[in-house]
Amino acid sequence: MKSDLDLKPQKLNTRTRTVGPDLNHWYPVGWSDGLKPGQVKNQVLWEQEIAVYRGDNGDAYAVEDACLHKGVALHKGDVQGDELVCPYHGWRFDGQGRCVGIPYVDDSNRLPKKCLRRYPLKERYNLIWVFPGDPVLSESMSLPDVPEYDDPDWLIVEIPAHFNVHFSMVNENPLDVFHGHLHRDLQGWYNPVLVSMENDEDTVKAEYEVTFKNGWLPRILGLTRSKESEVKKRIGVGYYYPHCRNNMPGKSNYYFMRQPQGPMSTQSYSLLCLKIRLPVWLVSVVRKPLSRILWWFLIKPFLDQDIDVMESEQANFHRNPNRRHVEINPVIAAAQLLTVKKYDQYLQLQDTRLQKTSNNKVKT
After folding, report:
1. Topology of domain 28-140, per CATH?
2. Angle, to 10 degrees, between the axis of helix 167-175 and the axis of helix 330-363?
3. Phi and psi at residue 20, to the nearest 5°
4. 1 confidence band (pLDDT: 50, 70, 90)
5. Cα-atom radius of gyration of the chain, to the nearest Å?
6. Domain 154-284+327-341 is classified in which CATH homologous superfamily?
7. Average per-residue pLDDT in the chain?
8. Cα(260)–Cα(123) distance, rounded to whole angstroms?
């Protein structure tokens, strides 16, 4: 099949690998079941240090990871009840960031009125989500929708990964179906063809047609049947800023949720939803062990190859950020433009808010 879309050199934005994320979105910072009552962990969202802890009441909280007193990292302390206690002098903070106790101060009226920064937090899909931007905007921004998560007909495989690369590289990877060549020894796909593409202010979407050879892996995933030598399938990909997903209708939906930590560090929490041909009662029994097996023996080998080449790309960019690159996939060019545009819009909004705050101070 020949695509109507021309694969030719595309105009790239050289700032893509240097911009930050639009922080006015929800970002995952860990698996919910990985944070037990009484635990506190350090998480980083674009160079913001955040202490995420779960109180004895089972609720999770996120506050800045620096005590008001000396700036000591609060994740080095412990949780007492539903409060976070600094390891240095024992100052106590509640989930709203308020100082609620100092061991050597008896009068509560003498406690500092200043609060730690509190981050809006939600838990869904066994993920802890934090909103690192303007908290006023947190209620108007929605989490990614994963309708398969609570559907017993779907098997959910949780996929953690860390990349020592800029988040834009991580997001471009699932959009670039042409990189099947990398996975040729893992019964991956081949002969990819870009069939369609569309983009708007917030998304980049495309559809590819790919071919799978018959083998144990495609058969497990229900892509081929025993008598077929190969089969062609459509893969839809989408960059729904700031996260990505792809799907094969009726077979799988893959959700890629990113935690941009810094210019060369990205944590990823992905959910692979597989429509498997097993009775619902059996799926509920084998869900956890089957998902772990699929993760270790099916998904991780692909992911390790992706990590290796992306970290090579990042290393070369770090050595020579002015090197000119050639891209012929319009999907990647559009994704890069969207990444830069979102960051510029975020900066513009920040400048507008700072200007309004400055003007109000002058008036008062």
Report:
1. Rieske Iron-sulfur Protein (2.102.10)
2. 140
3. -95, 175
4. very low
5. 23
6. Naphthalene 1,2-dioxygenase Alpha Subunit; Chain A, domain 1 (3.90.380.10)
7. 91
8. 18
* pLDDT value of residue 204: 98
pLDDT value at residue 360: 67
| pLDDT at position 215 | 66
Is the torsion defined by CA of 33, 34, 35, 39 positive or negative? positive
- What residues contact residue 137 under an 8 Å CB cut-off, 6+ apart? 24, 131
Residue pair 199/338 in contact (Cβ under 8 Å)? The answer is: yes
Residues of the chain with CATH 3.90.380.10: 154-284+327-341
- Distance of CA 105 to CAs 74, 82, 91, 102, 122, Å? 20, 20, 10, 5, 34
- What CA–CA distance (Å, rounded) separates 29 from 44? 8
Query: Global pTM?
Result: 0.92
Give pLDDT tens digits for 301-359. 999 999 999 999 999 999 999 888 889 999 999 999 999 999 999 999 998 887 776 66
Tokens (6 digits) for 38: 């009484």
d(CA 257, CA 268): 6
Question: CA 29, CA 66: separation in Å to the nearest integer?
Answer: 18
Residues whose CB falls within 8 Å of the CB of residue 74, separated by 6 or more in sequence, listed in order: 40, 51, 63, 65, 66, 67, 84, 86, 87, 93, 116
Neighbours of 131 (CB within 10 A): 22
Alpha-carbon distance of 137 to 157, in angstroms, equals 31
- How much is the pLDDT for 279? 72
